[in-house]
Amino acid sequence: MRKVVVSNYDPHWVHLFEEEAKRICDIFKDELVDIHHIGSTSVPGLKAKPIIDMMPVVKDVEKIDSYNNEMIQLGYEPLGENGLPGRRYYRKGEDDRTHHVHLFQWNNHSEIDRHLAVRDYLRKHPEAAKQYGELKAKLAALFPHDIKGYMDGKDLFVKNLEQHAQEWYAKQVDKG
Predict the structure, then answer these.
(1) Distance between CA atoms of residues 152 and 36, nearest Å
(2) What distances in angstroms separate CA 35 from CA 13, 28, 137, one per listed residue?
């Protein structure tokens, strides 16, 4: 069983994202619209599980399954929607997980904006990022071999964070 590990922020995570983004761009080529570094490793200063979350945005999500063999060759396990309609989810590494890919079609604004809102909110609100990081470190210490306990422990915080982040993000988009 994998141990739940939360680390201090590592600036190298940005480079790990960039390197993997190039590999993913080489696979999806013209189907790719954009690719974003999301999740806790994308927020400077935030404690995180050292797993790089990536969000490729594509023209047609239905075509993505045809790239599964190339993703497997890159070390990813394709998991289809994995409980979230309209997404394609991949994870890299078994017990030593390194990357998660959450892939959406360009017009899935609710999911794309949700991920970008949380990332950008935490980047602009260091106190919220600090609280979130401290909670994650505390939960990792309480549930070192229980990912479900860890996830359940942060569920209410994350739901509140998402709500505040989406309200804030909507105001930013209206301004821009």
Answers:
(1) 26
(2) 15, 11, 28
Average pLDDT on 149-165 reads 97
**Average pLDDT over all residues of the chain:** 96
CB-CB contact of 103 with 64 (8 Å): yes
Under a CB-based contact definition with an 8 Å cutoff, are residues 172 and 124 in contact?
no
Sketch out the chain's domains with CATH numbers. 12-175 (3.30.460.10)
pTM (whole model) above 0.85 = yes
Residue 118 burial (C-beta neighbours within 10 Å; 0-12, 13-18, 19+) = buried
**In a 3-state reduction of DSSP, which class is residue 86?**
coil
pLDDT, residue 47, reads: 97
Residue 100 DSSP SS3: strand
Give the span between the Cα atoms of 41 and 30, in whole angstroms: 27
Average pLDDT (90-116) is 95
**Which of 96, 65, 66, 97 is closest to 81 using CA atoms?**
65
